[in-house]
Amino acid sequence: MSLKDRAYDHIFGKMLGGAMRPGARLSDIHLAREIGVSRTPVREAIIQMETQGLVEQVDGVGPRVKNLQRPDLEETFELREILEVAAIGKAVTRITEAELIELQSICDQYLAATRALRDSRTKARSWQLFDRMVVLDMAFHLNLMRAARNRRLLRIIGDVHILSRILRRRAELPGVDVLTRSALVWRDHVR
Fold first, then answer.
1. Is 77 found in the same domain as 46?
2. Does residue 38 contact residue 32 with C-beta atoms inside 8 Å?
3. Residue 157 predicted with pLDDT over 90
4. Percentage of the chain with pLDDT > 90?
5. Does residue 85 sit in helix, strand or coil?
6. Element (H, E) at 65
7. In whole numbers, what is the pLDDT of the chain averaged over residues?
8. Which of 7, 10, 70, 128 has the smallest count of CB within 10 Å of its CB?
9. Structural domain ending residue among the three candidates 25, 42, 65
10. Mean pLDDT within 127-140
11. Domain region containing 12
């Protein structure tokens, strides 16, 4: 893992976990010390996050965690749908048997996580399972997109998935609505 990737993962984890809230200033000096790297990989990670829509530059202040709203979530999912439909059109003619088996395995894991979330008794456990479901959802879609054999499309979809992961975490609390929606979506995936 490169130093930039290490810095990116650290910052992204703090955003996802809520330790870095919307509007929080990203100090490359502070983050570099915290991560144990120089400022350069931190700056590179921040620039990457800016291109992904996670960070914004504020004049006179510097980089801040972007305050994403519900319309951002809706636009992101609309973009995902457009890109993924195009990629699926390519993937269906190019997917291998091994890739199909992997997709089925991810579906099985997702359904198990959904059942565990349904039976979950604590908020912390619910969030843990919900995060697992989001990761599995991303893995399913990215594996399907890889089957399209288009690197540029995969990179763009990957960035959109990262943004949607942050947005979903901020917009939803695990519960019946998530379970109901998940069951319907994944039933279609399995087909």
1. no
2. yes
3. no
4. 51
5. helix
6. strand 62-65
7. 86
8. 70
9. 65
10. 86
11. 3-65
**pTM (2 d.p.):** 0.68
- 18: how many CB neighbours lie within 10 A of its CB? 10
CATH of residue 39's domain is: 1.10.10.10
Q: Is 31 exposed, middle or buried (0-12, 13-18, 19+ CB in 10 A)?
A: buried
pLDDT of residue 34: 97
139 with 118, same domain: the answer is yes
Question: What tokens appear for 14 in the block?
Answer: 């703090």
Structure tokens that stand for 56 in this block: 């914004």
Query: Hey, what's the torsion of the CAs at 27, 71, 12, 106, to 10 degrees?
Result: 180
Total tally of structural domains belonging to the chain: 2
Q: How does pLDDT run across 23-81, given as a tens digit for each residue? A: 999 999 999 999 999 999 999 999 999 998 899 999 999 999 998 887 887 888 888 88
- Residues facing residue 178 across a β-bridge: none
| Cβ proximity of 49 and 126 under 8 Å | no
Which residue, among 15, 148, 138, has the nearest Cα to 80 in the 3D structure? 138
Residues 174 and 180: their CA atoms lie apart, in Å, by 11
Tell which of 20, 41, 65 closes a domain.
65
Output DSSP code: residue 63.
E
Q: What pLDDT shows up at residue 94?
A: 96
Per the listing, tokens 């994944």 go with 186
